[in-house]
Amino acid sequence: MTSDHRALARAQLGATLERTDLDVLGAKYEGKVRDNYVTGDGRRVLVATDRLSAFDRVLTTIPFKGQVVNQMAQYWFEETAHLAANHVLAIPDPVVTVARECAPLKVELIMRAYLTGVTSTSIWRAYEQGARLFCGHALPDGMVKNQPLPRPLLTPSTKAERGDHDVSASRQEILAMGAVSPEHFDAAALVAERLFGFGQKRAAERGLILVDTKYEMGLAEDGTLLVIDEIHTPDSSRYWYADDYEKRLGAGQEPRSLDKEFVRRWLAEERGYRGEGAPPAIPDEVRVEAAARYIEIFELVTGREFEPDRAPDPAARVARNLGVTA
Question: Which long-range contacts (CB under 8 A, 24 or more apart) does 88-92 make?
Answer without folding.
Answer: 89/43, 92/321, 92/322
